[in-house]
Each structure stands twice: as C-alpha cells, then as structure tokens.
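Margin note from the TA: students keep mixing up input and output lines. Inputs are the sequences; the output is the structure of the whole complex. Example:
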Amino acid sequence: MISRVPLRDEVYRQILAQLQRGVLAPGARVRDVSLAAQLGVSRTPVREALLRLAREGVLETTLGRGFRVRPLDSAELREVGTILGALEALALRLSPPLDQPRRERLQQLDRRLEQTRGDVSTCLDLEDEWHRVLLEACPNRRLLELIGSLRQIPRRYLAAYMQAAGRLSLSTLPHAKILKALAEGGADSGAAVFEQQWQRGLTELESWTGRGPAVPA
Amino acid sequence: MISRVPLRDEVYRQILAQLQRGVLAPGARVRDVSLAAQLGVSRTPVREALLRLAREGVLETTLGRGFRVRPLDSAELREVGTILGALEALALRLSPPLDQPRRERLQQLDRRLEQTRGDVSTCLDLEDEWHRVLLEACPNRRLLELIGSLRQIPRRYLAAYMQAAGRLSLSTLPHAKILKALAEGGADSGAAVFEQQWQRGLTELESWTGRGPAVPA
DNA sequence: ATTTTGAGTATTGTATACAGGATATCACAC
DNA sequence: GTGTGATATCCTGTATACAATACTCAAAAT
C-alpha cells in the first residue's frame, strides 16, 4: 500500500515537532516564508498548516500581522485542561473494560517513563502515548480525534514547566491511581479519578506559574 | 472602529450558510473554483475555508479528489452528540446561576420557536441561539468556542430530519425540562437533564434514520 | 530628549499560473 | 449489451506573482 499524503499534513507535523522541541518558543513570530524555505516547499502548504495550528490554539494570528506562537497563559491551560478532563473521562466511561494486554502496555510505558531523566520531549511523548493507549479502545473515534488535537495545549505547558522548574521526569503516580480505580471501581470510578487527577495537575502547574501569564511577554 | 476581517472568514461564513440552507446537499461535490467564481474571490481564501470546514467535520476530502459534503451517517451523529452532551453539560456546571434577564430571553426564544412553522432554517437558528444564551455566562471561552464549532454537525442532521420527516417545528419541551431542573436542582441537576435530553434526541433521530447512513449514497 | 514623520523594506493576504493526476468520453472488441 | 482502453478535459494541489499593509529606522520637529 503506497501512501500519499498532502504536503500540508507533512508540513503540519514538521512544524508541530519544532513547537514541541521548543525551536519555536512561545511568543515567537512565525514567518511562513522562512518555514517554507527551510522545509523546501512553497508558502501555500505552510500557510495551510499554520492556519490549522491557529485554529487548534497553538498559534495566534492577527490580520496583516501573520502568525506567532501563542504565549503561555495559565488561564488558557485551565480552560483546556477542564475540557480535556471531561472528555478523557467520557472516553474512559465509553470504553470497554481494560484488558490485560493493554494494562501491560501501560505499565511498560510507565516503567520507561520512570527511567527517562532529563529528556523532556521523550517524557511528554511517553505521557501522550500512555493516554492514547488507555483510551484507544473507546469506540467514539471523533472523541479520540478531538482529544488528540486538544492535548497539544497542555503539552506545551508541561514542557515549559519541566524545563523551567528543572523537573527531570514526570510522576507516574496519577497513572497508578487511575489504573487502581479502574480495576477496583470500574469505568465510572476510573473516570472520576481521571478528572480529579487533571484538576490536581492543573493546580500544581498553576502554583508554579502563579497568577497571570506563565511566561511574560 | 472600522473592522477588517480576513476574506477566508467571510468566505467560511458564506459557505456555512449555503450548507445550512441546503444549497450544498450531503454527498454533493464542492468545487473550489465554482465557489470562488460565485463569491467573486480567488481560490485561495475559498480553499482555506474549505479546509477549515473539513477539519470541523462538515466536509470530507480525499487527496486529489477535492471536497464533498460529508454524507449523513447516524454513527457520526451519535459520536458528536455524545461529545456535545458532555461539553454542554460541563459548560452549564461551570456557569453562574441563571439570572432572571437571561431566563426571560430564553423563554422569549421559546415563544418564537413555538410560533415558527415550516421554516427549518429559522427553527435551527433559534435553537442554536437558545443554547448560546443558556451557556453564554460560562467563563470558559474556549469551551464555548468548541461547542459552537461542534454544533454545526447535529444541525445538519436536524435539518435533514425536519425536512424529510415533515416536521414543521422543534419541540420546546426539552428546554422547559432543563430550565425546570436548573431552577429546582441547580447547575448539576440541570446538567444531568441536559445530557439526558441529548441522549433522548439522539435516539429520536436514530429511530427515524434507522441503522446505517441516513441518506444513501 | 522624546516624539513625529516619512521613505524604504519586509511580510502578509490574495490572486494567478502550472503540472500531475483524476474523471469523463467515446471507440472498439467481445 | 457489456467491458476495456486511449485520449481529452477538468480539477486539484502546489508554486509563484502581485498589491496592500505593517514594520524599521533615521531625520526633523517639538
């Protein structure tokens, strides 16, 4: 099966990777022409990718002033985090019970997460993967897609937090709590704990950023 | 204050209006060049608007084959409806108590809804507006935005349902139930009833479409 | 010294051009 | 009549071009 993919999608992935690696820092201006040159394509697919990222909330755009990486703003994090907490809890409630193979994959991911030190990007990839595996059996594809696109937002905040606060790894404790609740209380109980862990995480990040923008302009 | 708006946004609104009026029927192919001619702009902003609609799920796109209006598929309706039920319930829980002026605006909308007969588009506009007013006090702007973009999906199904099944108006009974629960039981109770009404509505539409695609290809 | 202003440059938003692939048409074979 | 293949047209995806707006920075004015 040969796969062809629109250039705009490939460009989207590349830009997203740069954002996640921090090459494009919050607040930085994003010029389509330089990205196009760097990626060796024309401005058109680049702009299509940028418009998509803007709609997803990672970039912001002002008419005539192009794109910039949206500055971190703890209010935004709380807004998106609240939404994600509800949606991921919903996905969990809609999922069939966690079977043994998937449980083992989750535990395997947690082990790798515990061994990773100092590599922010890898940590976040593992964290994303953990969530993906936990929810992948949910039959509501549309919901999973929505969750996937929203998760980009907290990811940026976590990255900034880990780098700035010198945290070298992510705790796997929330994961364990969720799995425990799932095993003992079923989907509803797991979903409740899931949402609760989201709130806890939000509070932790907010206590770090304090009030106002996490990264001053 | 003179307001300038990107062409792509204006084009987006125009195309959406055509979709809502049924000028662009489900399954129909959408050619950017003819839309561009019709609107008197170039293909570029039209394509930007179409890509956005595709990401929002109203259109679908295959590489090299352009855009088409996504055929109605009752599975999609259930997926999006479940998400919207959860999100609108969440928005309600996050909102301050409904004050009297807003309650009156809602009742006013319901009266207009009851008087409207046979004009599907007006009915749906009023229904959208009712939801918007109910939730507008929710402080989570991001959530409201997401709800707004998702609501386009069920709107298409409602339109098809009303036209095909010869329903001339929408019932305001669900609205009344929600307001009653809100008044008597507070936000949580209202949210629960909200979600329940969503499920009821989904079931009603599904019993009409039966299994499988609502509109055969 | 600070603010204003204006020419020049850079960059955006939109329009147009181009190339390759997809669809349609029609002739011909079976 | 149905199926197959060549060819011609159309359309999409991408690249490039253009015009208008926003930024830069230095010189003038307050």
